[in-house]
């Protein structure tokens, strides 16, 4: 009810302005510890735990990359009931991203279009914030805490040939403070980034990252420090097969999918340039997930993301082969009870 009212007001603002406003309020609210406890209790957890990569997930729903690019909101996102948090995309050096406006709502379709272009504070600033965060939780909570993933990307000005080096430099700064690293080679808003999904390029990046992992000194105690690849929904069958082949040999999991550039999905006369997320992405991203599951076999970890607006879609992702699920646009349209409602629905069998 309250969110419906807040949403009416927020939706009058430019989408990114509203996001910035909500971020500032969440940062302020999470500084008030008793308030955080109240939120946690209101979101009372349902047991749907699982273990993957040696990490404990209290429930399978994570917040997808892009909502908390700079790791400012982790305590609040945990309190809202997400089973894991993915921060980023973070690049080695800070970036301003594309000119505003660059984020757009399509409420009739429960969709967003964004062309943010990896606006973020850079690896060093985000690592520092993550370090402060881990210090702020007690050593007990440190172990039991929902896993925090960091999603890394390439700086815009870096050529494809120099991409591996750029990813490794970001990895070296951020990976020690994260439970898992997601390699973003699928954002449509950095020119040519998606070419890094080609098998030779992807293999080169993954090989360099694996080497970096073997040298790294991790500050987080748990887990096997997986390297996960996030793919686009716009790959054709042959391309998907190539990506899966490389991933199975060289990565520890796949996230399917990022936003789509297929404007026809929105069924509107005019669609802004950028990546489409939300309900119109559901079918496409789930089809890619299902095909990926067929290609990688039953044991390989997959994360399903794209168009999860409620527990029905989350259940469909699990049924299509996902071990874990994520959402972003659902949080914008359904509000702060999004994670609680999805997890509740899943625990009773996928009814919204
Ligand atoms: C405004 C916005 C910003 C995003 N930024 C990133 C990002 O920085 N890195 C990334 O890997 N995905 C990013 N995404 C994609 C989401 O993580 C997710 O893959 C996609 O939105 C599909 O999920 P959804 O339909 O639940 O939103 C972004 C999505 C939105 C809507």
In DSSP terms (H or I, runs of 4 or more residues), the helix count works out at: 13
CATH class: Alpha Beta
Report low-confidence residues grouped into runs of 5 or more: none
Bound molecules: flavin mononucleotide
CATH superfamily: Aldolase class I
Question: Which sheet architecture does the biggest sheet show?
Answer: 8 strands, parallel, barrel
Helix content: 40-55%
Look up the CATH topology. TIM Barrel
Distance linking N and C termini: 17 Å
| Mean model confidence by pLDDT | 92
Radius of gyration: 19 Å
Explain what this protein looks like in three dimensions:
There is one protein chain. The protein is 41% helix and 16% strand. It has 352 residues and is α/β, with parallel strands linked by helices. It has a single domain (2-347), classed as TIM Barrel (Alpha-Beta Barrel), CATH 3.20.20.70. The strands form three sheets. An eight-stranded parallel β-barrel has the order 3-4-7-8-9-10-12-13, surrounded by six helices. The two termini are 17 Å apart. The model has no long low-confidence stretch (mean pLDDT 92). Bound molecules: flavin mononucleotide. Flavin mononucleotide is lined by residues 64-66, 69, 88-89, 103, 112, 114, 116, 151, 184, 187, 230, 258-259, 277-278, 281, 305-308, 327-330.
């Amino acid at each position: 009810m309250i969110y419906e009212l807040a949403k009416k007001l927020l939706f009058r603002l430019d989408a990114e302005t509203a996001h910035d406003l909500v971020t500032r309020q969440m940062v302020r609210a999470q500084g008030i510890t008793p308030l955080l406890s109240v939120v946690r209790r209101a979101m009372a957890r349902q047991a749907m735990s699982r273990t993957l990569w040696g990490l404990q997930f209290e429930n399978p729903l994570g917040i997808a990359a892009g909502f908390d690019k700079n790791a400012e909101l982790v305590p609040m996102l945990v309190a809202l009931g997400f089973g894991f948090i993915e921060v980023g995309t973070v690049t080695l050096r800070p970036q301003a991203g594309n000119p505003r406006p660059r984020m757009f709502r399509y409420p009739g379709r429960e969709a967003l279009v964004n062309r943010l272009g990896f606006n973020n504070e850079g690896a060093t600033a985000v690592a520092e914030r993550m370090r402060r965060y881990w210090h702020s939780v007690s050593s007990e909570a440190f172990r039991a805490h929902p896993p925090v993933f960091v999603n890394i990307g390439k700086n815009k000005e870096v050529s494809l040939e120099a991409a591996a080096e750029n990813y490794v430099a970001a990895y070296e700064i951020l990976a020690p403070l994260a439970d898992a690293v997601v390699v973003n080679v699928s954002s449509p808003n950095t020119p040519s980034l998606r070419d890094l999904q080609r098998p030779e390029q992807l293999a080169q990046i993954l090989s360099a990252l694996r080497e970096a992992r073997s040298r790294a000194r991790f500050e987080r105690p748990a887990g096997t420090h997986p390297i996960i690849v996030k793919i686009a929904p716009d790959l054709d069958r042959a391309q998907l097969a190539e990506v899966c082949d490389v991933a199975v040999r060289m990565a520890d999991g796949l996230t399917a999918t990022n936003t789509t550039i297929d404007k026809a999905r929105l069924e509107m006369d005019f669609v802004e340039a950028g990546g489409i997320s939300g309900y119109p992405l559901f079918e496409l991203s789930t089809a890619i997930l299902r095909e990926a599951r067929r290609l990688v076999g039953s044991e390989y970890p997959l994360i399903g993301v794209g168009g999860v607006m409620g527990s029905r879609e989350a259940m469909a992702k699990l049924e299509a082969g996902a071990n874990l699920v994520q959402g972003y646009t659902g949080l914008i349209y359904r509000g702060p009870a999004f994670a609680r409602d999805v997890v509740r629905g899943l625990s009773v069998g996928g009814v919204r």
